[in-house]
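Q: I have 192 residues here and want to know how they pack in 3D. Can you give me a structure?
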Amino acid sequence: MPNPHPLVVHFPIALFLVAVACELIAYFTRSRLLSVGSLVASVAAALGAFAAVVTGLFAKQIVPRGTQAEIVAGSHETMGYVMLACAIAFVSMKLWQYYRNDDRVLTPLIAVGLVGVVVTVITAHEGGQLVYTHGVGVEQTPPEDVLKNYPYGSAPWKESALDDSKSSDSASDSNQSAREEISVDSLEMRSE
């Protein structure tokens, strides 16, 4: 089963940033519409953060043990919990402010939101490090020189294509054989 964590994480990141931005603008402009927008976005962000934490627990299983990636993943997990806590606190305070019409909560609400934004950015950065620096959850592609030896950019990776001990002559021979097989197959298909 594919890892759903990368599909889920972008929603709470974007929605939480939108919720805090709407709340900040609503605070200074006294816009009721933006305040409601902040409420809706923050509820969706908290639900998305919960989904990101749950899917992240499953994604953690593919992190190689005893590596730098494992250290980054541990910090990423902790920051994910903190981000979820900030999102829940933000939603709770926003609901209190909205339904009780209590503006005394606005300053702490914005403070929690700004802390949550910082935590969200750090968490997202660590998630990016896991993927782009450590290659967690990413299929590695063969080296460019191996790719050039096969027609149409495809190669039987599980076979001897990645064996570095082969000389370039044998790679050229297998390349020629592959082309001949494709030509023969396409001719047979046309004749049928």
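Q: Anything worth noting?
A: The chain has seven helices and no strands. Confidence is low (pLDDT under 50) at residues 158-162, 164-168, 182-192.
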